[in-house]
Amino acid sequence: HVQLVESGGGSVQPGGSLRLSCVSSGDTIGRYCMGWFRQIPGREREGVAGIESDGSTSYADSVEGRFTIPRDNAKNTVYLQLDSLKTEDSAMYYCCKGTPPDNWGQGTQVTVS
Known about the structure:
The chain is mainly beta. 0% of the residues lie in helices and 49% in strands.
């Protein structure tokens, strides 16, 4: 059973940075597409960034140039580096595995204010 555990969320001022981590236990993340989604209460969960098994990445237009999604296969960890944060980036951020996602973490809250 694969378990994904996120950490690194918090409160920052606009323009600040955070680094979210997602550690996978039970399977090797390098074999899968890994991604980050975010959700605001009352709204649908939206994709933020993804990284394929070959290392290719994709980003939502709203975060292109500000967020990156590095992966450390040796640590079975995928990260989300959030720079130049805006108030509209405030949300619960979730890590996921697979396309379509078949495993989700519990989420970590990011608040920009």
